[in-house]
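Technical note accompanying the year-one report. For the benefit of new consortium partners, we illustrate the data format agreed upon in the data management plan: each record pairs a sequence with a structure-token string. No post-processing was applied to the example shown here.
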Amino acid sequence: MESTEILTGIQWRKSSYSGDQGGNCIEIAETTTAVAIRDSKNPAGPILALGPAAFTTFVSWAAAAK
């Protein structure tokens, strides 16, 4: 996992499922070693950084849980 200092200069992108109306949106950013996730309404807030395999498992779990 990377520190937030390393994650500061990365390119964030909003989820394709996020609407233009605000609400529950996330952004992700990919680095060579992690996928970072943050709340788009609070970009200065906490960041969850997962390794690629853990991120894939998380996405599969989240898709099954809806």
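Partners are asked to follow this layout when depositing records. The helical segments are 4-7, 52-65.
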